[in-house]
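tmp note - Phosphoesterase
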Amino acid sequence: MKLFVISDIHGAAASLRHALEAYEGSGADHLIILGDMLNHGPRNALPHDYDPMAVVAQLNALSDAIIAVRGNCDSEVDQSLLQFPLDASYNQIPWFGRKLFLTHGHLYSTECLPPLRGGDVFCFGHVHVPAAKQQGEIYLFNPGSIAIPRQSYPASYGIITADALEVRALDSGEILQQCSLVPQVK
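out:
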C-alpha cells in the first residue's frame, strides 16, 4: 500500500492539478490532504493560480480516495463545498504495525506532540517546509506545500510506503528528503 500526501494547497488550482497528475502516476492507494485546501490565509500571499472553485472541482472528482484533516485556513463553508470529510483536526491510520497520526500542525505540532508510541509517524503540514526524519523513537513527516513553499524549498509532495517516507519536488519528482522506516516487531 502507498499513500500520496499533500498539504497547504491554499486555493492554487494549477499547483493542485500538477500534484494530482503526480498522484495519478504514483500508483498510490489514497490521497492524504493535511489541511489548508481552499483559502490562502491572511499571512500568505495570494497564489498566482488562486481559484478555489477549481480546487473544489478537482478534489471532489477524487473524493472517494481522499483522507483529509482540517487546517487553520479551512472553514465550515469549505466543508459545504467539498464532498469528503475535512472537519476533523486529526486522523489516525494503523500502518504496518505503527500509527500514522495525521494533522495540519497548528494544534498538534513538533513542539506539542500527541500521544505516540515508538515507531509511529507524526504527519503534519502548516509550516510549508518538508521533513522526513526520525526524531528519537518517532518519525516526523511533512510533505511541504504544493503552492506556497518556504525556506527556499520547491513545491513538494510526500509518499508513504510500508518502509519509507519520501518528500519529492513537485516539478521534477526529485527526492528532497527520505527516511527509512524501521520494521515494527510485534
